[in-house]
């Protein structure tokens, strides 16, 4: 049995939360990070909200001709100045 697929916003949120502890406290502090990840993406019908974009890391490491093609997501995360964006 496979786990339910996450929405795109949930996947990006978990990636950002996982990176936050890595960005602070060291002598070198990155101000941005770029990620290019393989994703399985699609649309899912919701009874109350129309369509939802689902995207998650691939479920398996090996691919067959029966699997849907894996897309790529390029994500750029940056540190905002205190007080928000100008």
Output the radius of gyration: 16 Å
Average of pLDDT: 77
Total strand count, please? 3
Give the uncertain stretches in residue-range form: none
What features would you describe in this structure?
By secondary structure, this protein is α+β, with helices and mostly antiparallel strands. It has one domain. It has one helix and three strands; from the N terminus they run αβββ. Strands 2-1-3 form a three-stranded antiparallel sheet, with helices on one face.
Quick structural overview:
The protein is α+β, with helices and mostly antiparallel strands and 86 residues long. The protein has one helix at residues 8-23, and strands at residues 32-46, 50-56, 71-78.
Provide key terms for this protein.
86 residues; alpha+beta; 1 helix
Map the helices and strands.
Elements: H1 8-23, E1 32-46, E2 50-56, E3 71-78
Antiparallel strand pairs: 1-2, 1-3
């Amino acid at each position: 049995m496979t786990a339910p697929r996450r929405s795109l916003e949930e996947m990006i949120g978990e990636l950002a939360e996982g990176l936050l502890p890595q960005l602070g406290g060291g002598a070198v502090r990155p101000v941005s990070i770029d990620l290019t990840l393989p994703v399985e993406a699609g649309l899912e019908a919701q009874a109350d909200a129309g369509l939802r974009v689902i995207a998650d890391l691939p479920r398996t490491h090996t691919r067959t001709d029966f699997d849907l093609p894996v897309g790529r997501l390029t994500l750029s995360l940056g540190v905002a100045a205190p007080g928000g964006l100008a």
